[in-house]
Amino acid sequence: MATSQSLSNGDDHESSSLFCESWRFSVEANNAGNWSAVPDRCLEFVKDYMTGDRYKSDFGLTAKNTLEFAKSVDIAEDGKDAWIFDVDETLISFLPYYESHGFGKTDQKEFVKWGLRNKLPALQASLSLYKEIHQLGFKIFLLTGRPEWFRNFTTTNLAEAGYSDWERLILRQPSDENKKAIDYKPEKRKQLLDEGYRIIGNVGDQWSDLMGYPIAQRSFKYPNLMYYVA
């Protein structure tokens, strides 16, 4: 009981560090549910994690595991083996925004405006993975929750970050505007199945990128402690 109390109410550095490690695990295991902001006591923890070696290591190992699976696939000659990537926090990153604005709750309008004014950098481990996946012969589909009017900006940003040769960039159409990601993304995957594609792999930073029918043969989740998308 004393330990439980210290985790929920303790203010000392040690108990906060332990709580934040547990919160991180809860987020990545999808146990935290629809969380809206980093707990105040964990802001410094998240900053240290996202800007330090731990995030790069976790991200890099996930990319390594993903590539190991991709290399094990016997790719068919019909060109229908598909691999899906999310975009934000999967291929390119808003981390510079959070570094300059803090890791607390964000102003969504300011967040979008910043994204339109600035070029988001590539996540290097994912860029290397992307190129390897393409070289193996998979057809790459980029499935993002960004709206259609972001297309030109997104295409330019991705190209400048080093990405190329995707089969299709799928963005939200007006009819998708009010759909949650957990509903929107499976619908788009189903459309690919209906076109005859086999979804072999799927990579994203949100559980809503990966869950829902149809799912890929293997799904891989990158870490993200900055925000949650339902």
Total beta strands? 5
The total of helices stands at 10
Strand order of the largest sheet: 3-2-1-4-5
Fourth-tier CATH superfamily name? HAD superfamily/HAD-like
Shape: globular
- Report the sheet-strand fraction: 5-15%
The tally of structural domains comes to 1
Mean residue pLDDT: 93
Q: What summary fits the major beta sheet?
A: 5 strands, parallel
Q: The CATH topology, please?
A: Rossmann fold
CATH class: Alpha Beta
Distance between the termini: 33 Å
Q: Name the quaternary structure.
A: single chain
Radius of gyration: 18 Å
Order of helices and strands: HHHHEHHHEHEHEHE
What are the low-pLDDT stretches, counting only 5+ consecutive residues below 50? 1-10
Annotate the secondary structure layout:
Layout: H1 2-9, H2 13-28, H3 43-51, H4 53-72, E1 81-85, H5 95-101, H6 108-117, H7 124-136, E2 139-147, H8 151-161, E3 168-172, H9 181-194, E4 198-204, H10 207-210, E5 218-221
Parallel strand pairs: 1-2, 1-4, 2-3, 4-5
InterPro entries: Acid_phosphat_B-like (IPR005519), Acid_phosphatase_pln (IPR010028), APS1/VSP (IPR014403), HAD-like_sf (IPR036412), HAD_sf (IPR023214)
Family: Belongs to the APS1/VSP family.
Keywords: Glycoprotein, Signal
Short descriptors:
230 residues; alpha/beta; Rossmann fold; 5-stranded parallel sheet; 10 helices; 5 strands; globular; disordered N terminus
Verbal overview:
The chain is 49% helix and 13% strand. The chain is globular and about 55 Å long. It has a five-stranded parallel sheet with strand order 3-2-1-4-5, sandwiched between helices. The chain has one domain: HAD superfamily/HAD-like (Rossmann fold, 3-Layer(aba) Sandwich). It has ten helices and five strands, in the order H-H-H-H-E-H-H-H-E-H-E-H-E-H-E. The two termini are 33 Å apart. By secondary structure, the chain is of the alpha/beta class. GO terms for molecular function: acid phosphatase activity. This is Acid phosphatase 1. Belongs to the APS1/VSP family. Keywords: Glycoprotein, Signal.
